[in-house]
Amino acid sequence: MSLTEHHLNDSELELFFADQSNIDDNSRAAALIKQQSDRVNGWPRLIRNLDTYSRIQKDVVNVKGIDIVVTLNETRAPSITAKTFESKQLNSQPCILCNLDAEQKGILTLENRFIVLANPGITIPGDLTIASVNHDPQLIANSFEDMVSLSKTLTDYSIFYNGAMAGASSPHFHFQAGLKNTLIAEQQIDQLLNGSPVGNAEIILLHENKTGRLFFLNNYLRAAYLVVSSDYQVINRLFREFYLHLKQVDRFIKDIPNVPDFGARIISMNINETEPRMNLMLKYIQETAKYLLVIFPKVFNRPAAYFKTGTEQLIVGMAIKESLGNLITVREADYEHLKTDPSLITKIYSDTSIPPEMIEELNKSLKMK
Ligand SMILES: [Zn+2]
To answer: For the chain, what are the domain ranges?
Structure first.
């Protein structure tokens, strides 16, 4: 069955719309989640995971003045433990996004080029996976404009992207989405943009013109850059420029223990790495008619502790949800360690984010442009 055959049209979703008079992709996505969670007609894997999710454990840890949410969430185990981009051999498993379960349904969007699905790995209920209907590689260069279009279409959501070597769990091109402002760092970033303090974090303006602004967040546990503009063409252009500057700086990712050198072969995609390593969040804010793009440049998704053994090991994968302040563990011991030792949290962020010398290079080139 092709991906497009998993599409549910508006009449098939009829029972699940909250308001029949106002149907758009936001209400379709909400209706889809209800349909997929329905105990009679829904998707069994999502229903099982919703039951598991009801037992989630959660705590807020203050790390150098910055609040981080630590969770024990077994529904995310397949993503957290996925070794899609770490394997030394070509994966012989069938692609999970090309081979959906029979009951797994979605809605087609952007001229039927993408299918919106319920994400079975639940960080916050309502999470979506937005997959290309074709098995295209996980590369953002030709799809960033689609990300911008999705943010304008799915205005109830923040749109997420994980680069192949920065935490994606499938080589099949996909975004994720989550209901806006539900992750703690989204709220902190809004506070910083509004001039309210968040720990010792500083918001530094690197570049400004009539139509767009680029900021760097300093003292925020991980490197983060914000791009704000009301013009989608400006967002596109600033992202493209950032991408090229970061790609230059990523040449410094080499000879780091357990971290693949930048530019090496990506076996699961059968290509050499060409894209800078990053996690992205993009949302369209209707109240101000502005886009907000947040870029987290990464060294890798696995911190040093992942490669340790015994009680020193932490099974974590640092991708966009983690960049947005939501740490996901799937073992009780990892949860307890992170909850009680903020220095471990500092370390896993600094291991996976670009280090100060790369930040300095990047900021220098961004300021000159
Ligand atoms: Zn596929």
So the answer is: 3-368
- Percent of the chain at pLDDT > 70 equals 99
- The CA-based angle 68-48-8, given to 5 degrees, is 100
Distance 226 CA to ligand 1 centre (A): 31
- Concatenating the DSSP letter of every residue in 275-286 gives SPPEEEEEEEET
Q: What is the CATH number of domain 3-368?
A: 3.30.428.70
Distance of CA 233 from the midpoint of ligand 1 (Å): 30
Distance in angstroms (rounded) separating the CA atoms of residues 178 and 155: 11
Query: Could you tell me the distance, in angstroms and rounded to a whole number, from the CA of residue 103 to the centre of ligand 1?
Result: 18
Distance, in Å, from the CA atom of 365 to the CA atom of 248, rounded to the nearest integer, reads 10
Q: Nearest CA to 301 among 222, 245, 217?
A: 222
Tokens, residue 258: 């357990």
- DSSP for 79-139, please give it: HHH--TTT-SS---SPPTTTS--TT--EEEETTTTEEEEE-SS-SSTT-EEEEESS--BS-
Q: How many CA atoms lie within 13 A of 141 on its CB side?
A: 10
pTM strictly above 0.85: yes
Distance from the alpha carbon of residue 50 to the mean position of ligand 1, in angstroms: 25
Segment 238-264 shows an average pLDDT of: 97
Across the chain, what does the average pLDDT equal? 95
Query: What amino acid is encoded at 30 in this protein?
Result: A
How far does the centroid of ligand 1 lie from the alpha carbon of residue 269, in Å?
11
